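Can't paste images in this forum, so I'm doing it all in text. The chain is below; anyone willing to post the predicted structure tokens underneath?
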Amino acid sequence: MALYTRESKERVRDTVDFVELVSARTELRRAGPASYVGLCPFHHERSPSFGIDPGQKVYYCFGCQASGDVFTFVQEVEGVDFKGALELLADRYGVELEREEEDEKEAERRKLRERLLELLARTTAYYERCLWDSDEAERAREYLLGRGLGEEILKEFRVGYAPSAWDRVLLASRRGGFSEQELYATGLAQRSRENGQLYDRFRSRIMFPLADIKGSILGFGARAMHDEQKDGGGGGRAPKYLNTSDNDVYHKGSHVYGAKLARQSAAKAHSVVLCEGYTDVIAMHQAGMKNCVGLMGTALTPPQVRELSRMANTVLLALDADTAGQAAMLKAYTLASERELALRVVPLPAGTDPADLLLAEGSKAVQEAIDRSVEFARFRVERVLASGDTSDTEVQDSMLDELREIFSTLPSRSTVRDELTRLVSSRFARPNDLVEKRLAEPTKGSPSTPAAGQTTAKARVDLSRLDKTEREFLALCIAQPEDGLTALRRLDVEEHFSSSLMRRAARYLMDNGLPVSMSAPDLDDDPDLHALLAELIVQAGSEEPRSEMLDVQRLQLELARVDRQIQRARGQESGDVSELAKRRGEVKREFDKANERVLEETGERKY
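Text version of the structure:
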């Protein structure tokens, strides 16, 4: 894989405003001399446990232990690899990247991809000009304006029009130096089944560019303008919507429509609205609800769920409640429950999509529908209860069969389950305990959906007191570079630190000096050490530097070392612990005095 030079990487790191970058995902407030805190963007929490150091440009969450630097932050929130994160940041902050020498075949693949993306970008610009400048596109403009979409928002989404001629893109691309093979590889052209001749794949269609998170156009969604439109290749009637087929740059089901434009708003709103179609998304953005993205069909995929989960912790499903929409919602729930993603359903009038509701009743009606969103399980229960006469015992039995499947997805002891049980009991006019028993019966032959709340989250690390002391000592060393380095050098790394990771951290700080640098090349090969140093730097930024506190922690480590020596000595037949006990008494007296100094300084005893 082609790599960028370390100098390029460091230029990007130095240029990034880390507070600005993270603030797009969570609200930050200053919490110390060199620290900001906020709600963690990687897990659900009500009180802030996520901190960043804007100088070293690292983050750490004391709740879920997520940690890293500017690059890992972008990797996590954008779902890209290191190379992608570096390119995103370089593009955002205007830093030119320099490549190292790369493998010849890799260079060829990269150049080919760049050529294909350039061709797609040129074609997008051509379609845009056609929509706004050509007489032929008048009907397309009328259709879009009739949907209530204005020119400004359509240009923001780069909507265009493909003319009816068979070879406009083909000829223009040839003039631009692109080959027929490149046109075919991007899905912009296809061959006739009758004579093998190459021709434009998209004709007489409104074009919706499909972009990745960097804004690069990968393909198109295209809406036909004529009911009896033919595909032109010897086949029959063309579909109303025609998408780019899978190829070297576009992979169906890997993205959601409008994600790049919605990401920042979704992060700030802590929710993302999922619609079905392109015009729904565009209309929602125009109405000010910019945290909206499109499903591009009804088959939600795991990559799309991953992309949604990186945008926000809650997904609001604004899908038509018809059979296809119901299937999409159920698939979404199954996938979302595997990623700790909260799913809610926006109630829409039957047969109505968000764009229809906006056009008929305005943005207030849509916002009110969003505000009335309900948990997915409640939505399903209420639809079952509304499907028949709940006073009829035979109907009740039929409903219970459906309801059991829904309740099988809920934890046995949860507020949601209790509330929904009471709802069913009330509608059936039956005792709550009887309904609860009937709902708990096993379902017959239907696959169970993963129960909400049963997913495995990143476990909270249960640190020992000694490990906490070691971490706090190293954080204090970082917070007080001069005194910290002196204190570190008074310790024996092998004897005073209890784990291999803590010893590596102590050695790194001594060998590289303080203030600590997170850009040393050897950190790239030790992700565990990189994560620990990020945690220590964030913790150091919230500490008030006090030499007395540093002494307390150093002496605490010395006490632990002597205790371990005493324990080893007692395990030996000829072990004599008298000298060690004497040493422990001396250290304990020093420790008590240091603790008293902390009390005098802060009014609070450390231990």
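The chain is about 50% helix and 10% strand. The chain has a mean pLDDT of 86.
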